[in-house]
Amino acid sequence: MNARITDYRQGRHTQRDNQGIIEIEGVDSKEKAEGLIGKEVRWKSSAGRLIKGKVTQTHGSKGKVRALFDKGLPGQSVGSKVELK
Predict the structure, then answer these.
(1) 40-69: string of b/e by CB count within 10 Å (b at 16+)?
(2) What structural domains and CATH numbers belong to the chain?
């Protein structure tokens, strides 16, 4: 599935770079997004570095999901594509 990292999970004073907000093509409701919980997410850099993660829960009501990654994501990952398996 085609997906894109839109932002980090963040609060007013904190930013969690190991948690990303992901937007998935064709998913536009919370009900569709709930079916993706537990799926594996992979981000690959241009240099070949691979960071794996897992979809943990939905984010909002428009179909975005929250993913928890093994390591922190670099700034280049925001706006880039990820694999969803």
Answers:
(1) ebebeeeeeeebebebeebbeeebbbbbeb
(2) 2-84 (2.40.10.190)
